[in-house]
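Handoff note, outgoing to incoming analyst
You'll be picking up this chain. Sequence as last confirmed:
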Amino acid sequence: MTLEQMYTNNMENLILSGFDIWIVIKIFSLIILGMYIIFAFVITRQVKLMTETLTLGFEPIVKILSLFHLIFAILVFLAAIIVL
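Most recent structure output, in case you need it:
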């Protein structure tokens, strides 16, 4: 039995057993996007702490950008839930 035949037999067994690799990829994508929302929240929190500590004159712009980043991350996650 050649390597190609073994690979074909294994793939046929996976397909026949009802295993769908795309479900795993979709779940993995949603987990990664969820982690990115946590990252965006941490960035927003760090910007808030930074602007309380330092006074440079452009704090409102940085706060708005970090808030837009968090909102965009949440919207991408929701879009992924709908699409996937």
